[in-house]
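Note to self: user wants both folds in one dump. Writing first protein now.
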Amino acid sequence: ALLTQLQMSFYSNRGGDDNEKENSKKVYEWLKYGIDKYPNYDRINILKRRLANLEMPTAQIAGQAVYHPDNKEKKFKLTYKNLNEATVKVLDNKTKAVVQTKKIPLSPKTTYLTEEVEFTLDLNKTGDYILRADYDKKANTKSNEDRYTFSISKLANFARVSGADEYEFYVVDRLTGEPISGAVVTAYSTDWSNKKYTRLASVNTDAKGFAKFNSKSYFTNKNNVRYVYKVSKDSDVMLEYQDFPYSYNYNSSSTYGQDLISIFTDRSIYRPGQVVYFKAVSTLQKDINTSLI
């Protein structure tokens, strides 16, 4: 009867955070009651295993993929259960040296509910970083979720196909939206295993943050070849390789010109009250040529 009651508590009222919390509380209370009330029950280990599973410590760290160096406090979120303390270490992804260590005290209200806490790191040097976490108990982190990779960079870029074998890049400051001149867009070839990257060519952005790249001499129709690019400015280098944009509807007719207006914002999601920075770029596209209006 006790096991039946546990099953009913587990499956009832599921579908919302409050209901799930209440449901977990009922299951926890029934488990504790059964273990305390019937310690010699011949199937008591079933209850003990379920209680151990319910109270199993868990942890997961989340944050942005890229932070701007001028934002002094980089915010992260730790979702945890049945833990009292976390120690996070930030490593330089290139040298693997520890650049910052921070202890995060935790105050779990229960041993069986998942809770959240925000913490910040004060880093401003551009680069790629690894965040690792240790806990006061062995936590189930599910596929290395205690390891979080992020980068600090001023660079944001937009790319598009502008003609046959022609690509355009626009590089801006990801916080202010100001164009960045002298940024380097480097093209690479690789296969789909992404084990080796071969540099093909580079182009620099102009005073307006624009760069054009003609792929005719570099791209081939070979199978299993992937073309990607990275953007850099001095020591500020993008963490990830990005695929070149694709276009399947390119019209090469030279009988007409087309005005195009592209609007770029500095980010895709905003908090209430944040300032929206944007740029509008007007171009004239005719045949395989694009000119700035």
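First done. Writing the second protein, which came from a different request thread.
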Amino acid sequence: VAVGGNGAPLVCFADEKIFGKDKTPRAIQNLGGIANVTIVSPECETFAFDNGPANVLIDYFANKYFNLPYDKNGEISRKGVVNEYVLSELMSLPYFDMMPPKTTGRELFSYDFAEKIEQKYALAPEDMIATMTSFSARAISDSYKKFVLPKTSIKEIVLGGGGAYNSTLRQMISKEFNDKIIVKTHEDFGISNKFKDYIAMPKPNMYQSLHTTLIGSDGTPFEIQIRTYDMHKTAEYGIAAHWKYKETQNGIKSSENEEQKLAWLRQILEWQKDMSDGKEFLSNLKNDLDLFSENV
């Protein structure tokens, strides 16, 4: 943000380190709810932006029409017919002409947006999902033609995220480029397609960390955990976070009073960590409790 960006996408530094070593011009294309790309090429500086929707609209209609969380392997969209008129209308959204850096999300491609599409066009369920899948592929190719290919050639598109498992979406993306750009997935490089989710998408208890095992020079394996400082702080408060997570998993919703208790416990833990003087810590704790001030 400080240097003129929009604060997202968030994981482009990892893309550069992992995929930039052999100097092949690549587009590292994430297919989460929203599609975002990192361009890693010796022909230009690394840059990233959000292309448009990826799974968000597909998932919405899969759930609404078929009571499914997503279109597994693109099986539903494969049965449908893409409506080119609807597709061209959707591609007229102003966002697709905005110059990067840019970011978007569910504030634009929302459930309300999906409902308006349904009301206006009234497509058959399979056709709707096929059209939304094509919409995601077209938004990606359109953004490359406008903002990427004028700066650098692209030899490989490397797909990641949940959408990388959708074979229909993969095929549509490839056809958008007339099969002239090789389309791969993270798994072609020995990396899970959901690799970035471990960092970018926290668990329900807000725990975020990348765990890996390395082999030392003497052959001894050891584990390292990669986190930002804020991620580490959350992990340090694991007891409180784990407690809340387990209650939620068991169907018990935390009350506002319980939320306040958790916030207070986190504050106590932070004091304990930051204060080297035990007496100062106890004094702050006593004042915060404001109970039995002469006896505690």
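Dump finished. Worth passing along: Residues 1-8, 291-296 have pLDDT under 50 and may be disordered.
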